[in-house]
Write a structure and sequence with these properties.
It contains 29 helices and 31 strands. It is an alpha/beta fold and about 850 residues long. It folds into 6 domains: about 1-160 and about 260-270, no CATH class; about 165-250, no CATH class; about 315-390 and about 575-615, Metallo-beta-lactamase, Chain A; about 395-565, Rossmann fold (3-Layer(aba) Sandwich); about 635-710, no CATH class; about 715-840, no CATH class. A 7-stranded mixed sheet has the order 7-8-9-10-11-20-21, with helices on one face. The protein has a 6-stranded parallel sheet with strand order 14-13-15-12-16-19, with helices on both faces. GO terms for molecular function: hydrolase activity; RNA endonuclease activity.
Length: about 850
């Protein structure tokens, strides 16, 4: 470990954390690689690097790359194993120390093969012995220096990456070395190897002037003759020369080993990053810091506050503060333009979504815009096509292709003004596919500059494309256009037909306007306007013009337009139906319309308010609009509260189904049942200092507050008429009960009466009292009961008092029972028998 301490100190000094604060990710990457290159190579090329040292050096490099502070606070955004991959395989190309060390040590094995007369080789052979001319025997002794032992253990890796070129055959073993098709004869003919006379024979031993002489220990069986014939056929093309046998490195043209090549071969077995055109990406003419940022985007490892985007993913989430307010802003991918986003902003409890441009309909290269269902106070949406509902996309594409095909067939040139992102790629795919199907040879061009870089990003970020494009990527990249080429300025006036994509899309200036000035005066040419054009732009003027016409390009320039004008809507903006679908899906409390024409926004506002019943506004530029927001209390919920709120509360409503048949309206009551779940969760919110608010069930409230459970109960002593038996029995002193009937008999009589009147309520009789919900009814033996607040309507001898107690939730039920008890007359079987006899006597 001592020889590595200096390297650790030197690396830590060069990768000081304060430097990381002033460098971008690209700058930090360059510095990390330069530090490793400056490490003493002779140390790593002679001594095996311990695992502890690798771990410490990797930690220093990893902390510097991701700007992790001394306390360990920070984010390792990408697995370190993937960072160490080469750039061609999707990593950052940071050196893998273990593989670098092994590649440097393997250099000694190559020198052992090449340097036959070297003194150091003679010392190694004398000490460890020779397994074959290419390597020593395995060293397993515990004593001595372990340097060569480590180097020798790398021979299996070296052996798998070299092959033998036989010369005179003095060094190559006939059976055991892989000198034919880089495979040993022992593996190809194991049955003949078992009966060979000398398993360690050299190739030169088996070669004579007459040919191959293979010595076997015994005579051949019939089935072995064919195997020998196959062996001789395999050897027929081999020629023994007078040169020395050589070992060659498989992975270089000249067969010479190199440390860099061995390192790359070691990385070949490491995987973990999605397949992209990484070579094209890293070699592109883009600043390094932009490449590194895009690399993180491709791997979906932008610093997240909440992980979401999984194809279609959320690209990143920002948390930032403005004026003391915290914004949580996840950027949602909108797939109508690469890299476009819908922004979800939250300030306190107020939440809103700002859409920008979006399209709710999938196109050829990107899918439809997608966003999660959110609880919003406001949606700000663009309304370019506030009153337009587009026709079929396939009809528009067919008209577009027919117009272009007709123009180039007649020898004309086609100019398609388009923006660099979005429409240019979609129309390139459309034309490239059409050119392939129709076998057209007319060149298609797009202007250099931003469009070229945009196409590169489309190729690299193909995982963000539509499902159709991703499925096609298994065979080819849909953005590798076969018929689309770069356009040079000198080709503007070149003869012959062609199709050109040029920016900007509204002919407001730039290269597209320059080409337009040259091509507009000729009738055979075509200007195809695929998108929306602002008023006062040249594109907008062309939409209204009917050639031949004179167009004002600027105050001092006019152009005679005789070319054909074709306008089709391939705009990235959504139409009226798409806007309504988005608002209906998000169901915000308010909507603001922007980026549209005022009359059209007024029409859309009326539709939103009438159909969706959502307040809608369309303020003018620089005009303020005040929106009321909702305040929420975020609270945790207990398990008991959640379980109680999960219980459904279904309500079934019978509806009348009506059938309209011509002039007669048939109305019939069928069993059409509408089911709704009016579920209301009741609980208590506990708010304590320095703790999050919590919603709990009312039954657990007292335990949490560590307080006694107080319950309000109501009591009433109710008299019930029970006529005396025909033969009275004297009452005991102080007894207020019936002289004949006992307690159980009274309760049974009352239970029978109440059961007839309350068939929808469960009544329990345990012999001591009646229980109806929280209501308890029991005979009262007291002469002066404190709950007796009435004047008995019956004589004392005929009244039996019952004490009734109940909770407040059963207040209505209790008074219903009491009102019935007051009017009851509990008659026994003796009364009924007496009445029957008197009826018979009369």
């Amino acid at each position: 470990m001592e020889i590595w301490n200096g390297i650790l100190v030197k690396t830590e000094k060069k990768l000081a954390r304060w430097k990381a604060q002033y460098l971008s990710l690209g700058g930090r990457l360059i510095l990390i690689n330069s530090v490793l290159d400056s490490l003493p190579t002779y140390v790593m090329s002679l001594f095996p690097i311990p695992a502890k040292v690798v771990k410490k050096l990797d930690k220093l490099r990893r902390n510097f790359l991701w700007k992790i502070n001394k306390e360990g606070k920070g984010y390792n955004l990408v697995n370190w194993k993937n960072v160490l991959l080469s750039k061609e395989r999707g990593g950052l190309g940071i050196r893998n120390l273990r593989l670098q060390n092994e590649s440097l040590l393997m250099k000694w094995l190559w020198r052992y093969i090449e340097e036959d007369a070297a003194l150091w080789k003679e010392v190694i052979v004398a000490k460890y012995g020779e397994l074959n001319p290419w390597c020593t025997k395995i060293t397993s002794e515990p004593y001595g220096v372990g340097v060569w032992r480590t180097i020798r253990n790398l021979w299996p890796q070296m052996e798998g990456n070299v092959y033998i070129k036989v010369g005179n055959g003095n060094k190559t073993k006939f059976w055991k070395d892989g000198w034919i098709d880089q495979t040993s004869l022992r593996e190809l003919f194991p049955d003949l190897f078992l009966i060979c006379e000398n398993p360690d024979a050299r190739v030169s031993d088996c070669w004579t002037e007459q040919g191959w002489d293979i010595s076997l220990r015994r005579l051949l069986n019939d089935w072995e003759v064919e195997r020998v014939a196959a062996l001789l056929e395999k050897l027929a093309g081999m020629i023994i020369t007078t040169t020395t046998d050589k070992i060659l490195w498989k992975h270089s043209k000249d067969g010479v080993f190199s440390v860099n090549n061995a390192y790359k071969r070691g990385l070949m077995g490491m995987t973990g990053v999605p397949k992209y055109n990484w070579n094209y990406f890293w070699k592109s003419d883009i600043p390094t810091k932009v490449k590194c940022f895009t690399w993180k985007v491709i791997l979906q490892n932008i610093l997240p506050a909440e992980p979401t985007l999984r194809g279609p993913p959320v690209v990143w989430t920002w948390d930032f503060h403005v004026g003391g307010l915290k914004f949580e802003t996840p950027c949602k991918r909108k797939q109508e333009v690469l890299g476009a986003a819908m922004f979800y902003a939250k300030v306190g409890d107020a939440a809103m979504v700002y859409t920008g441009d979006y399209n709710m309909t999938a196109d050829r290269h990107l899918g439809a815009a997608q966003i999660d269902r959110l609880q919003l106070d406001l949606v700000i949406t663009e309304s370019t096509y506030a009153t337009t509902i587009r026709d079929s996309k396939y009809v528009r594409e067919r008209e577009f292709l027919e117009a272009i095909h007709k123009c180039v067939d007649s020898g004309g040139k086609v100019l398609i003004p388009a923006f660099a992102l979005g429409r240019a790629q979609e129309l390139c795919m459309l034309l490239d596919d059409y050119w392939e199907r129709m076998n057209l040879k007319v060149p298609i061009y797009f202007s250099a500059g931003l469009t070229i870089q945009a196409n590169m990003y489309y190729k690299v970020l193909i995982n963000w494309a539509s499902q159709k494009v991703k499925n096609l990527s298994a065979t080819r990249n849909a953005f590798d256009f076969k018929n689309v080429h770069n356009f040079e300025r000198s080709m503007i006036n070149a003869p012959g037909p062609c199709v050109l994509f040029a920016t900007p899309g509204m002919l407001s200036g730039g290269f597209s306007l320059e080409v337009f000035k040259q091509w507009a005066p000729y009738e055979q040419n075509l200007i195809a306007l695929p998108g929306y054009c602002l008023a006062e732009t040249v594109g907008h003027k062309l939409m209204r013009a009917k050639p031949p016409a004179r167009i004002d390009v600027d105050k001092s320039t006019q152009i005679d337009v005789r070319c054909q004008i074709h306008q089709l809507s391939f705009s990235p903006h959504t139409d009226s139906k798409g806007i309504m679908d988005l608002i209906r899906f998000l169901s915000p409390k308010n909507v603001i319309l922007v980026h549209g024409e005022k009359p059209k926004m007024a029409s859309l506002k009326e539709r939103i308010e009438s159909d969706l019943r959502i307040p809608c506004y369309y303020p003018a530029n620089n005009e303020s609009q005040r929106i009321e927001s909702t305040q929420y209390i975020k609270a945790e919920a207990s398990k008991s509260f959640l379980q109680s709120s999960l219980s459904p509360n279904f309500k079934f409503l019978k509806t009348i189904s009506r059938a309209d048949t011509g002039f007669i309206l048939n109305e019939r009551a069928e069993s059409c049942v509408q089911v709704c779940d009016d579920r209301v969760a009741e609980g208590a919110v506990i708010m304590q200092k320095d703790q999050h608010p919590k919603i709990v069930h009312q039954n657990e409230l007292m335990d949490i507050l560590e307080a006694e459970n107080h319950k309000v109960q109501v009591a009433y002593c109710c008299p019930v008429c029970v006529p005396n038996e025909p033969k009275n029995v004297p009452l005991s002193p102080g007894e207020d009960m019936h002289p004949v009937l006992d307690k159980r008999s009274l309760l049974h009589l009352l239970y029978t009466k109440l059961s007839n009147d309350f068939q929808d309520v469960t009544i329990q009789n345990d012999g001591d009292c009646l229980q109806i919900g929280s209501l308890t009814v029991s005979p009262c033996p007291k002469e002066k009961c404190p709950h007796r607040r009435h004047v008995n309507p019956v004589s004392t001898s005929e009244a039996v008092n019952f004490c009734c107690t109940w909770s407040t939730e059963d207040e209505k039920l209790a008074w219903r029972v009491i009102s019935i008890m007051k009017n009851l007359e509990l008659k026994t079987s003796a009364h009924l028998e007496l009445k029957k006899c008197s009826d018979e006597g009369s």
